[in-house]
Specification:
Pfam families: AhpC-TSA. With 166 residues, the protein is an alpha/beta fold. Helices cover 34% and strands 22% of the residues. The chain is globular, with a radius of gyration of 18 Å.
Length: 166
C-alpha cells in the first residue's frame, strides 16, 4: 500500500501544472516589480523609485504587532523622507477598513491597497508585519520579518543603504 501511495504521489508531482513555490526572499535578491493603487487612487510602481532607497512595510489593521510598530515606522519614514521612499502596503483589507483605521490612528499617508494579496504574494510575505529595504538598484539590502522594536537598528540599515551608493 505504501508503495502504491508513493507511486501516485510521484505521478502527481510530475504532472502538477502548479508553479513550485520558491523559498523566502533574501538580501541580495532583486525586488520584484509591482504595480498597485494606493488609497489616494494613484498608481504606484516600484520602478518609479529606481535610484532611491525604498522601504516597504506590509501590515494589516487586525495585526497587533503591525499596529504597535506603525508609529515608529511612520516617524522613521518622516525622518528619512528626503532619501528614502516609504511604501505602506496593507494586506487583505478593503479601502473603507483602511481609511477607518487610518482616521482612528490619525495617520495621514497613502497606503497601497493589496486586498487580493498580489503584492505580498510577489514578495512571498507569509506573516505580518514585514519591513523590507530595497537599495537604489532594486536589490533587497535588509529584511525584517516580524515586529520592529527599539532594539532593531532600522535607522542604521536605512543610513547604510543610502550611503552605500553615494
Amino acid at each position: 500500500m505504501a508503495a502504491l501511495l508513493a507511486a501516485v504521489w510521484a505521478i502527481y508531482q510530475g504532472n502538477s501544472s502548479e508553479p513550485q513555490r520558491i523559498g523566502a526572499i533574501e538580501t541580495g535578491a532583486i525586488a520584484p516589480e509591482f504595480t498597485a493603487v494606493n488609497s489616494a487612487g494613484e498608481q504606484v510602481k516600484l520602478s518609479d523609485y529606481r535610484g532611491k532607497v525604498v522601504m516597504i512595510n506590509f501590515w494589516a489593521s487586525w495585526c497587533t504587532p503591525c499596529v504597535r510598530e506603525m508609529p515608529m515606522i511612520n516617524q522613521i519614514a518622516q525622518t528619512y523622507q528626503k532619501d528614502v521612499q516609504t511604501l505602506f502596503v496593507n494586506v487583505g483589507e478593503a479601502k473603507g477598513t483602511i481609511r477607518e483605521f487610518m482616521n482612528k490612528q490619525q495617520f495621514d499617508f497613502p497606503v497601497i491597497i493589496d486586498v487580493t494579496g498580489k503584492v505580498s504574494g510577489l514578495y512571498r510575505i507569509t506573516g505580518l508585519p514585514a519591513t523590507l529595504i530595497i537599495d537604489q538598484e532594486g536589490i533587497f539590502s535588509h529584511i525584517l520579518l516580524g515586529e520592529l522594536t527599539k532594539d532593531i537598528p532600522l535607522q542604521q540599515w536605512l543610513e547604510d543603504t543610502v550611503q552605500q551608493k553615494n
